[in-house]
Amino acid sequence: MAAPDHPHSSQRRGRPRSAAADRAILAATRAALVEVGWGRLTMGEVAHRAGVAKTTLYRRWAAKSELVLDAVAVLFDELELPDRGCLRADVEGVVLSFAALLRRPETKTALMAVLAESTTDEALRSRIRQAIVDRQKRLVLDGRSRAQRRGELPPDPADPAETAQVVDLIFDVIAGAVVHRSLVSDRPVDEAWARQFATLLLDGLGAVSPGPRPCPPEAQGPLPSSAEAGARQRPGER
Amino acid sequence: MAAPDHPHSSQRRGRPRSAAADRAILAATRAALVEVGWGRLTMGEVAHRAGVAKTTLYRRWAAKSELVLDAVAVLFDELELPDRGCLRADVEGVVLSFAALLRRPETKTALMAVLAESTTDEALRSRIRQAIVDRQKRLVLDGRSRAQRRGELPPDPADPAETAQVVDLIFDVIAGAVVHRSLVSDRPVDEAWARQFATLLLDGLGAVSPGPRPCPPEAQGPLPSSAEAGARQRPGER
Amino acid sequence: MAAPDHPHSSQRRGRPRSAAADRAILAATRAALVEVGWGRLTMGEVAHRAGVAKTTLYRRWAAKSELVLDAVAVLFDELELPDRGCLRADVEGVVLSFAALLRRPETKTALMAVLAESTTDEALRSRIRQAIVDRQKRLVLDGRSRAQRRGELPPDPADPAETAQVVDLIFDVIAGAVVHRSLVSDRPVDEAWARQFATLLLDGLGAVSPGPRPCPPEAQGPLPSSAEAGARQRPGER
Amino acid sequence: MAAPDHPHSSQRRGRPRSAAADRAILAATRAALVEVGWGRLTMGEVAHRAGVAKTTLYRRWAAKSELVLDAVAVLFDELELPDRGCLRADVEGVVLSFAALLRRPETKTALMAVLAESTTDEALRSRIRQAIVDRQKRLVLDGRSRAQRRGELPPDPADPAETAQVVDLIFDVIAGAVVHRSLVSDRPVDEAWARQFATLLLDGLGAVSPGPRPCPPEAQGPLPSSAEAGARQRPGER
DNA sequence: AAGTAAGCGAGACGGTACGTCCTGTCTTTTC
DNA sequence: GAAAAGACAGGACGTACCGTCTCGCTTACTT
């Protein structure tokens, strides 16, 4: 996952590359992102923090953007979709979790910077989709099938392309709205906003594909723990 | 509008700043953005293209990000909301116009780069909101009042805060979804997607605030000309 | 003397140049030389100290070196040759006076810097000779004629070119040796050194042109007051 | 010799500094001095001529003055004291050699500029003495002991401090007079002047310390070849 | 008294060089 | 043969001065 492209398949000759160095470099990258942000992040600084020579970095990653992408992609994998009882609550939960992740300094600075770089670099754009975007569509798919199991949503239509289209739309709307609210409008993504947004999304969905049934008020579980876990300082990260 | 902060109110002493230099610099910045993108854009290159000394740049803008912001902000002002007959058509129109604007290389590279910088710079964040985000909320407000005039939407509620909240939500959802679809998912924002998205939005809106009436099919006007005008090379811009 | 080249011959039209500005500029130049030396002396700084615009400087002096030359040349005019009773004592006196002048920070930094500039600028070289070098040959001529009046030296030979040659030699030897001792060898020019040097010079002179008679010990007057006056802070100079 | 301060004692880690770069930089500095003089000499230009990055210069020399000092100091080492048969002829020879060296554009512009800088920089002053002044006292010492071997001068006095004092005086007088004649008075140091000066010096010396015997006319050898060698373009220097 | 021509303080202007920082490559020795 | 160390060529940075150029006054002589 966060490993760089080692075509080490069958053990090559000479000294093998140090896996510890990989881990140290990615951790150092995240730490440096927190402290200085993308703009002042330098390869030399990362190498120094990781106790590694610059050559070792360049042997593994071709560019700063790829290193940073690998360093933060793993953080997005920590997003979860806890079962809060009904679809609306699950949507609110994932919105709040995602917003919490975007509140972490390394995540927001790295994500936006890498996206900015990708506007002029198709290869990087593809790498971002692969490492972050497409991986997190699982959240939509999971929430969808869970709602179907609960009977809140009808089963998938016969044509899988139609499903994919709706999933893409939902993902773009959720991710786009949360990012825009958090990083552009710079206003808090709190429970009130999440509720309002979930309402808009779910009622709107009913028009796009057969809609959800209303959510019984007593069914809502607690807020997902990960929503706040993201904001806490993670132990052992540096 | 795109002028840097000249507190020249009452004629100050000494030689006044050259307005021609301002224009040349902003035009050179846009041209350079098209050719080399944000990453390879240098202050020296901009100065050279504008036939201006570097000091003249730094006298007006403290940082590359502020210069670029001023250079592209004016492009967002060209967005219009042509009357296409009904609210749904107006939404589709603005979505397509905005997507066309984001297809221009200078717009997308500059917007994302400036947003990335702004994640660690509150002053820049505020400046972006002022120069771009808040200015374009006029599109939502215009569309809204036009629909109210048509009778498609009920009049504003008594509490103006409530209206503001809904307008913000709509703006975050539209802008966020279009940006995410265009620049992250990297899939086309075409008429089919715009229709699907407008459906989701308008039906969702009905749940958030009293909803729109259905759109008479015969009422839809033509696509806004600006949707494609943005993608064309602008004459005389060098 | 310290006035720049005003070809104001017959009163020109328009507002006349301010003589106060001239004085303020030269004083500011000397003050700045003391504080920051030649290397960090800037035209802008001088203008600011003098309460004058840069244009006013450039209207009068074409280059920093010319301004500085005019500013310090006047200091060399303060050198005097007090009558200390015999030629040897007069020589020692002028050596000590000159060394005291070279101990002043503005004098030494300006003199050497202007000489350095002049190695690649014939016009400046000529201007230096005119403003400083040739003017101070009067000291040698005065000392010489005084010694002749005392009978310590024979009258000038018939050929004035021969006299000029010897005067030049004496001047080069005195000025050169004192400057070298002070600024290159960086060792003190004290009474002991002055005595030793005067001995070498006067005895050597006897071989070049008919020599001096010995100096009666009781004839030596006091040290010239100007020898130390130069080292004191001059009142009212800034 | 002209190498900058490498405390590389026992082979350090990492890539060692390039000795070829050192040589190229010093040669480029001399060449640039000839062409543009001290005033227009820039670090960037030197780096460019030497085919080296500016950082490589700054890694070795902290300031332009130190670089230039190292670049020209080596030229002063080429001064020699050929045996011309008697002390007077040797003095004339060294005076002419020194004057020839000061006729070279790089030498005069660099020497005076570095001395000017040194008036406000004690460290540089000390570095100049070490690299140029004290090294060339060997010429006085050599001439002196050679004259003693010939019997033209008595052996050194018992007190070595007395000898040092006289040597310093001689050096200041010779170097000072030649520099002043050449660069300040701007008059030629030719054989006639050298003869007159040598006469003054040697006869004067007799009064300071026990003097030289007269020089037998038939003993004078030819002019030192180095007197003119310095003015010729040196082969293979760039 | 009005006109006019230069001087003047202020500060923007096109430039040049500065000395620093970072990039990505290379050459060493050590493991 | 990978790794740490650090020198290397290159290039952009943001700053400091340069010497010139407008500006809107001010000052004195000319009519």
Number of strands of chain A: 0
Please, what is the oligomeric state?
homotetramer
Outline the biggest β-sheet of chain A.
none
- Estimate nothing, just give the exact number of structural domains of chain A: 2
- Stretches of chain A where pLDDT is under 50 for at least 5 consecutive residues are 5-10, 225-238
Largest interface: A-B, 49 and 49 residues
CATH architecture of the largest domain in chain A: Orthogonal Bundle
Order of helices and strands of chain A: HHHHHHHHHH
* CATH topology type of the largest domain in chain A: Tetracycline Repressor, domain 2
Tally the helices of chain A: 10
Radius of gyration of chain A: 20 Å
Share of residues in helices of chain A: 55-70%
CATH class term of the largest domain in chain A: Mainly Alpha
Label the overall shape of chain A: elongated
Taking the alpha carbons of the first and last residues of chain A, their distance comes to 19 Å
Supply the key terms.
Arc Repressor Mutant, subunit A; 238 residues; homotetramer; mainly alpha; DNA-binding; transcription regulation (chains A, B, C, D); Tetracycline Repressor, domain 2; 64% helix; 2 domains; disordered C terminus
